C-alpha cells in the first residue's frame, strides 16, 4: 500500500515537471480541486434543476440551457480565477447575462430567475478562494437550495401559462354569463381554467379573442411555449 502511494507521488511529481511551451502538463493540486468543485457544483445543479425546477414547472425545454450555462460559467470562472478580478469579474458576468435575451423565444420570468440562480451558484462555487472554507461553501449552497424549496413547496408559487383563443359564441362574453363561458371553454379545450381575460371583441364578425390562464401541473398536455 505504502509503495503504491510512493509510486503515485513520484508519477505526479514527474508529470508536474513536464512542460510544453513553458506551461505545465498538469498541476495535480489544482486538477484535484477542479474535480472536487465541479462534482460539488454538478450535484447542486442537479438538485435545483431536476428536483426543484422540473417538478414544479413541468417544462423540459430549459433543461439543456440551465445545465449548459451552469457548467460553462463554472469552468469559465474557475479557469480565469488566476486573473484575480474576483468580485468585479463576477459582477461583470452578471451584467452580461442580465442583458441576454433569446430573440426567437423570450424567457419567462421564472425561467430567467432560475437561470440567474444557476449562474450565481456556479460563480460562487468557482470563485470561492482559500479564505472561504468548504463548510461555508456547503452552507451557502444549502441556503440557496433550501430557499428555493421553501418557495416552491411550502408557498407553492406555481407557474401560470396562458393560451389565446378565438371564440365565436359572442353571447357568452356578457359578464352575467361568466359561468357559461368558463364551462364552455373547459368542455372544448379540456383545460382546468383558473381565470380568463377578454382581450378583443368584434361584433361585426361575432368573434372575441379570449386569453385563458391555467396551471401547467394540472394540465400537463398543454406545455405552451412562450
Automatic annotation (TrEMBL):
Transmembrane domains' residue ranges: 34-53, 62-81, 87-104, 111-128, 134-151
Pfam families: DUF4956
Cleavable signal peptide: none
Domain of life, source organism: Bacteria
Keyword terms: Membrane, Transmembrane, Transmembrane helix
InterPro entries referenced in this protein's UniProt entry, alphabetically: DUF4956
Protein name (Swiss-Prot/TrEMBL): DUF4956 domain-containing protein
Origin species: Sunxiuqinia dokdonensis
